Amino acid sequence: MNDKVSGILFDKHDNELIRIVNDVLEGKSSYKHARRFYYPYFHSHGIKEMIETRGLRIAYAVVHLLSSLEVGGVDERINALRLLRNEVIDTAEGPMPKNTARVLLQIMKDLVRVHGDYHKQLQLAHDFRMAASGKPRIIRRQLKRYHLLEMPEDWNQIAFDDHVHDVNTKGRKSSTHLIMDAWIKGIQRLRVIHYNFIEPRFAAELLEAAKVLKIDIRIGIEFYARFRDKYAQLIWVPRGFNDAQAFLCFLAEPAVMKIMEAGRKVSAYQQECVSVLFEKFNESHRPEINRIYEIELPPIDEKEFLAYVGIGQKSRLHLAKFIHDRMLKVLQGETDRLKEEFASASPERRDAITQWIESMNTLDIESVIEEYLAPEKNPGIRYPQMVDDGPDIPELLQLSPFEILRRLAQLHSGYRVTLNLTDLKAGDVVELLYDCQGMITRLEIFNLKDYAAGKTAQIAEISRLQEAINDGSPIHLKQIIREIIEDLREPGTSANAQQIDKLIAILYDIDILRSYYAGKPLKSRIGSDSTGRSPKVHGMGLAIKETLPRRTQRQIVLDCRTNIRETIPIRIDAYKYTIDIPHESAGPFDNILSGLARILPVFNRLKVMRRQGWQVQATSTRMVRSGNIVTLGGAQKKIVNGLYLKTPESPKRRRGLKWIYLNSKLKNALKVVIGFIPAFLTFALTKDWWVLAYLGAFIWFGITGLRNILQSVLGGGGFRRSPLLNWNDYVSWTRITDSLLFTGFSVPLLDYVVKTVILDRGFGITTETSPILLYTFMALANGIYLSGHNIFRGLPRGAVYGNFFRSILSIPVAVILNAGIGGILTMSHTAGVNDILQKWAAIISKAASDFVAGFIEGTADRYKNIRMRLRDYKNKFRELLDIYAQLELLYPDVESFKILECASDGNRKANAEARDLEKIVMIHAMDMLYFWMYQPRSRVAFSQFLRTLSVDERHILVSSQFTLQRHREISQMFIDGILGINFPRPLSFYLSRYEEYLEQIKHLVFSEEFGEVYTGGALPPN
User: Fold this and answer.
1) Interior/surface letters 779-796, b for 16+ CB within 10 angstroms, e for the rest
2) For residue 274, is pLDDT > 50?
3) ∠ CA 921-927-929 to the nearest 5 degrees?
4) How far is CA 210 from CA 43, 88, 106, in A?
5) Mind listing the pLDDT tens digit for each residue in 463-472?
6) 159: part of which helix (H) or strand (E)?
7) 426 and 433 in contact (C-beta within 8 Å)?
8) Of 341, 411, 516, 859, which is the most exposed, with the fewest CB atoms less than 10 Å away?
């Protein structure tokens, strides 16, 4: 495929990334060491950067998440998820790090899925590398491409799904994969439903995966309770556990295990129906489908079906999707055969072939199969949702809702119970709420699957009932129950006299019903019921529109018009709140701010970190015509099975390849050329002095380039950078080319339109008549232009405002430069000083603006890098404290900072465990060594971080660094493959730099600046 790809498209790094991904997929990669115990402890910004690219690490993690659906891969999937968080979520760059991480994960998932299509992989690899830059326009384009809504970077959106399924029931995705996809969609709260029981190992994976990605997870177990002539579905959600271990201990209690075992019997009974249905389809329905659709669908194989179900609970949905896949393969084979016949067929036969393929392409196979699996098509089969009085009915299916909930309430755990409203009417809900005596705490007021199937006609009335119960008004509640009774008495209604009598009895006992929910409102739950198997139903996730960015709200309107997503008729009120968190005083700048704040209170805003969130009004959920809940997942409105006589082409995508996938070096060169042309033409056509006419554009571009370099050097390290880094290691050449592209178009704007046409010819403003006005208007024009192209590029609002006001700050600088240059020219007796200054006015204004910008943006980059390094150090130290806590348990009689010395004592008990923990401490120390030597502003950040620690914490931190003196042990760790086979470079770096690093750390700690002397002692070399 490579020879077919034009040489001007893509980069060699794209091909390298594909090679890495494919090697991992095909088992050729030497990346096996990532499965080892120690690898997750290495930091993504640490020493492993020396041996592996970021693309490799992300590829490995995603590959194993997508390919490990079997039970045995649980630990591996969790480790892969941790690596994903470390490599993507915690380290994404740019002004949109969270959204950048979402895009990177989604692209990498696609890159893995299209394995075998090299050209498609090449496009995705290039997309991945471009998105890794974090540029807002690129990220937003990719979000739109994947139908992902942009989420706020504060990650405070109200996005949820209260009813989803994973592979352990009837879903398609493993628990870890489900959690990862939920995070990609922006979901903050998730409730995963299991049927009748839950295996502890499945619960452990869900809880651990959710903890890794900080998603609020709830596990619900759905029970079928006998209610009149049907089953009511009750979702029990145990609550009140501090962590996953506490929940697993709860599941291990004898009373809980007894209920789980009863639930397993129910599941076995329900799955038996699927086996009977399987046989009935092969015997009766398959021949009928073959006759109607003129195909030869062979009998479906039971072993293949069971393999397809995997570890889940086989269901009618599994069977329908399995048959759907087999039928689609047969249709595709028949289509291929008809394509060959088409060339030599008669005109009449060609018309018949065309009509058959077109009808099969739009055939809703899923609905066809569901029809053959419906109860009315199989009268002799017992369906799980149909009440039966047979002798083999499990005990749990014979219990009423109250009896089941009473047993669950005896388990001594906090809990919530949600009533699934599928196939229930308002009268049924009144009865169930009354009979269960307040133990039902939630109503699943909206289910997307039922909504798609048209089963939500009763929801409006149930919603009114819920509001009446929460209002506590007996008048309102009495009115609604009377309306329900009257509806049941209407002619033509399948009235149940027993139910009417029961509702009348409740009417007389309405005060008891009210008392069940006095002080604890009956809340709502909204879920998609997503399994990831049906394209006709909206996928996982819902969100409250008002909690999303305004740009996203506008996008939702467009998406709803094109049926990409949908706003459901439910409204939930949410109110925004703001919290101001004071910054800790960490340097002279903060002291200056404090002084200014005493004079001007407005400076108090700079001393706080503002956080915004949303408070959801739980009892405000109601059904309205125009709701504010939007779906995060899409649905396929038009059925297309991919059957074509002639495969349709997509010329629009091909036309877009030439720029989007252009080689990066060529693209950067074109940016410079495109920006240079208007700059050069402006100077060449408007200046009569050859210096400006031919060199003006070069001078202009030189100022822009120097400003970017100044900004990068100031932000990255300045004059106190690591000796291992050169000044140009901090420079982003892509950012420079972007600046040169846009600065080129500012030349005709500032030099000709503003300075010459408007100010000089229009108002007579020059450097001679009014230099202050001249530079003021030019600065304002430049500020407007900068802000305009910042908005076009999708930069954050802060950058837009900052670039406007930095132009204003450049006015006095430009005036001073103008006066200084004029003074020098006057002193040198140069003729026509004012004329010269007028010609150079645009360049002087540009130089002043870029000078100010270089320092302001460089300072901003400096603080950003310091914040990133502080975050890295804090994360490392938190992990280090966890290790020390484990060592404390092994050596309770030893001071914390001397524990490592004891761990080296071969005579101590628990030595093996201590040695493992000691190796982890060494890993943390090597990462901190790498931070110090390679990461921008790490030394400043370390000094600031050290000041925040107590004396004991400082001792622990420093003693951990002196484990680097054990060079023999650490060298052996590298040789043993702790970082794989490419260890020579990091090993050489460690051996050559650790002594220098420890000397600098000692000097820093012993300095009088900290007021404490480190007395813990250095560990002797081994």
Assistant:
1) bebbbebbbebbeeebbe
2) yes
3) 105
4) 21, 16, 18
5) 999 999 999 8
6) strand 159-164
7) no
8) 341
CB 631 within 8 Å of CB 542: yes
List, as one string, the DSSP characters of 347-391. HHHHHHHHHHHHHHHT--HHHHHHHHTSGGG-TTS--TTB----T
Amino acid in position 250: F
Percentage above 90 pLDDT, the chain: 28
- pLDDT on residue 294: 85
- 14 exposed, middle or buried (CB, 10 Å; 0-12, 13-18, 19+)? buried
Q: What is the pLDDT of residues 761-819, one digit of tens each?
A: 888 888 888 888 888 888 888 888 888 877 777 766 766 777 777 788 888 888 888 88
Phi, psi of 231 (to 5 degrees): -110, 135
The Cα 460–Cα 979 span in angstroms is 60
Block residue for tokens 């979901």: 187
Q: What is the pLDDT of residue 655?
A: 43
Question: DSSP assignment of 606-636, as one string?
Answer: GGEEEEEEEEE-GGG-EE-SS--EEESS---
Q: Shortest CA distance to 759 belongs to which of 780, 749, 775, 774? A: 774
Reduced to 3 states (helix: H, G, I; strand: E, B; else coil), residue 235 is strand
Residues found in the chain: 1022
Calpha distance 564→552 (Å, rounded):
14
> Where in 169-309 does DSSP place strands (E)?
189-195, 216-227, 230-239
With tokens 């002798």, the residue in question is 391
Q: Which residue has the higher pLDDT, 583 or 109?
A: 109
On whether the CB atoms of residues 188 and 157 are closer than 8 A, the answer is yes
Residue 403: CB atoms within 10 Å: 15
